[in-house]
Amino acid sequence: MSSKAENDILILLVDDDPDLLEILAFSFRRLGYRVLLASNGREAFEILQTNPVNVVITDVRMPGGDGIELLKLAREQCPGTPVIVLISGFCDLSTEDAYNMGADAIFSKPFDKKTLLEALSRLLTPPEKRWAHLIDQVDVEMEIELQIEGLSDAITTKVISLGRGGMFVTLAEGQYPNVGNNVSFKIGCSNFSFAGSGIVRWVRTKSASNFPPGCGIEFTYLDSLQADAVLAYLKPSNSKAFIPNR
Amino acid sequence: MTEEKQRILIVDDEPRNQRIISETLEDLVDLKTASTGEEALELIETFNPDLILLDIMMPGIDGLEVCKRIRAHPELSLTKVIFVSGKAMLEQKLKGYEIGADDYLTKPFMPEELLAKTKVFLRLTRVEKELKELNRSLDQTVKERTEQLLKTEAKLINAAKLAALGEMASGVAHEINTPLSVIGLTAEQIQELIEDGFVNLPDIAKMNAKISETVQRISSIVSGLRSFSRDGSNDCVEIAPVKHIVEDTLVFCREKLKNSGIEMNVNPIPDNFNIRCQPVQISQVLLNLINNSCDAILHLKDRWIEIATEKKDGSIQISITDSGSGIPGPILDKLFQPFFTTKEVGKGTGLGLSISKGIVESHRGQMTIDSTCKNTRFILNFPDGNVPSTNNPIKKPNAP
After folding, report:
1. Rounded CA gap, B62 and B46, in Å?
2. pLDDT tens digit string along B335-393?
3. CA distances from B338 to B211, B341, B377, B378, B395 (A)
4. Are A181 and A140 in contact (CB under 8 A)?
5. Termini Cα distance of chain B
6. pLDDT at A1 over 50
7. Is there a contact between B151 and B197 (Cβ–Cβ < 8 Å)?
8. Are B179 and A17 in contact (CB < 8 Å)?
């Protein structure tokens, strides 16, 4: 599971619903985590500045400082702290925007606690270890041959775009996978081949505004060489996006 | 402009006269001749002349009778009739005018005079016909525009309803998904505790109670939604407690109020405040007023809405006051007019208040603005539902 013992981990739970806070806090504490509670974004941000919080789990719509505001502040002030966003209404925030703004995981209420715990432990693992998991079953194989030199060219030409936890891939009409699919991808450049696997987190089928169609993939596996290349590329850019939206 | 030749009918029993007239006019117009009144009346059905040069003295149906029948003919209202006659007694002329002749030409006449008169009357018919055509197309345009406006109005009302529904659906999804999470997580937790053999009965009982309570919370939202999804105008009229109507309404805007940082104060409503109404319709009126208030005070520092009720002179009064500073005089007059809105383009249809007023009035109530209040206050007045009503209290609403 996670690299730290549970009782070393401090979770900040943010929701305006006291019942939800209560049951989540009960569950996490029983598993050994330490928990702090906040009923809105502003309260949460104050806690975040004065406490060594390891992960934030937050609702979006709350009176007195919403989750979007909190996410923005958290990304600026404590970029290393994963933020898990809980969406409850269907127009709170789109998945692609949330990942682009720096959310590390997104769950729609009502959500499954087991999946939440899995995401939690995955996010508490540093990327190079996190991307070492080979998936058992592949739903879609994606092979994109690029007539370009290397990774940085692929990125400058906007065919792919890398984030802290995944990538955006431009796709042609009719090649769309489904959200939740396990994909293996192979992006071939003339002197660099970039392969791995991941989970499709969102799909944009037709060009909305100026954004190209494509999908957002969260990495689950990259071999160590590629993981290093990705991390080396990301380090100077200081990317906030977990999965960029274009 | 190429124009159809105008048509003249010559009615004279003397071929010589027919010939003289024909020769004078044939280049100018489309001509037909008739020798008797009977023949003339038959011809006009198909020929539809602009001008008839009509002899008076003819065997059979004479010119006067022909003129009378022409004037009675619905299709020939613009046809000019000139009597051509040797007899020019003033009395006879006047009679001719009386039955509908337009002019007189006395035989014998100079061809130039015939030509000049003919031209005058042909010009007159042409102008009259153009006017009639113009009028007809104007009527048509007005009709089309009116139809268009009605269609647009219906569309706008629909769009406004859809927008309100969308906003509500999102609010409801939020209201329901959070308690659903509470139920799901609590149930999972109980399961885990049991599996772990950690059976602390008070803990489990507490969690179980939380589940029941949360189910109750969701079901009250759903039942409110069910009643709201209908338009309510065909519902039964019932004697409904104002308290319930207000509570049902608040379910739908609590979320919006919360997100907008607006404080909602509802003064305690006595249980015996009842009104005779279709409750869903009154809820819709309240929701509309609350939504309006939200939009109006959103940018203010001080944001609150207050709902109060009062029994006054046999009627129940519901007032909705917000922290705004009243409605400016010039706007006040137009407030209840359909399509009047102060919201920016695309934000409001301007129909809410006019529809609401229609609904309130169909319940024999009044909707007014309290201009003495330093804040913005709308007042709804309904007949006291506890006082038996002698006639049907709901008029068919004219609101859409």
Report:
1. 21
2. 776 555 666 544 554 557 777 888 888 888 999 888 888 899 999 999 998 887 655 55
3. 47, 9, 20, 17, 20
4. yes
5. 49
6. no
7. no
8. yes
Q: Which residue of B has its CA nearest to A91?
A: B170
* 3-state SS class at B203: helix
Cα–Cα distance, A116 to A98 (Å, whole number): 17
- Give Cβ neighbours of residue A47 (< 8 Å, ≥ 6 apart): A12, A36, A38, A53
Q: For residues B62 and B37, is the Cβ–Cβ distance under 8 A? A: yes
Residues of chain A neighbouring B298 (CB-CB closer than 8 A): none
Q: What share of chain B is helix, strand, coil (3-state, %, to 5)?
A: 50, 15, 30
The DSSP symbol for A3 reads S
Q: Hey, is B35 helix, strand or coil? A: coil
pLDDT above 80 (res B159): no
Q: Which of the four pLDDT bands, split at 50, 70 and 90, describes residue B305?
A: very high
> How many residues appear in chain A?
246
Indicate the residue type of A42.
R
**What does the mean pLDDT of chain A come to?**
81
All residues at 6 or more sequence positions from A196 whose CB lies less than 8 Å from its CB, including other chains? A131, A184, A185, A219, A220, A221, A222, A223, A226
Give me the count of residues in chain B: 400
- pLDDT digit string, tens, across residues A137-192: 666 677 665 555 556 666 666 677 888 888 888 887 767 788 888 888 877 666 66
CA B49 to each of CA B5, B30, B271, B331: distance values in angstroms, whole numbers, following the listed order:
11, 9, 81, 58
Please give the Cα distance from B111 to B23 (Å, whole number): 9
Q: Place B7 in a pLDDT band, splitting at 50, 70 and 90.
A: very high
ipTM of the complex: 0.76
Q: What is the pLDDT of residue B346?
A: 45
B137 touches chain A (CB under 8 A): no
Measure the CA–CA gap between B128 and B130, rounded to whole angstroms: 5
User: Does B191 lie at the interface with A, CB-CB under 8 angstroms?
Assistant: no
On whether the CB atoms of residues A142 and A169 are closer than 8 A, the answer is yes
Using a CB–CB cutoff of 8 Å, tell me whether B180 touches chain A: yes
pLDDT above 90 covers a percentage of chain B that reads 32
B14-46 residues labelled b (16+ CB within 10 A) or e (exposed): eeebbebbeebbeeebebbbbbbbebbbebbee
Q: Is B173 on the interface with A (CB under 8 A)?
A: yes
Q: What is the distance between the alpha carbons of residues A218 and A100, in angstroms, rounded to a whole number?
A: 12
Nearest residue, CB atoms, A27 vs list B179, B185, B259: B185
B171 pLDDT more than 80: no
Set of chain B residues whose Cβ sits within 8 Å of the Cβ of A86 = 181
Smallest CA-to-CA distance from A116 within A237, A20, A46 is with A20
CA A133 – CA B332 distance, rounded (Å): 68
Cα atoms in the 13 Å half-sphere on the side-chain side of B30:
9
Q: Please tell me which of the candidates B182, B258, B261 has its beta carbon nearest to residue A23.
A: B182
Rounded to the nearest angstrom, the minimum Cα separation between B359 and chain A is: 31
CA–CA dist A174, A168 (Å, integer): 17
40-99 of A, contacting B, C-beta below 8 A: 59, 61, 63-64, 66, 86, 88-92
Measured between CA atoms, the residue of chain B closest to residue A90 is B170
For A88, the token pair is: 């409850």
Q: How far apart are CA B264 and CA B284, in angstroms?
A: 17
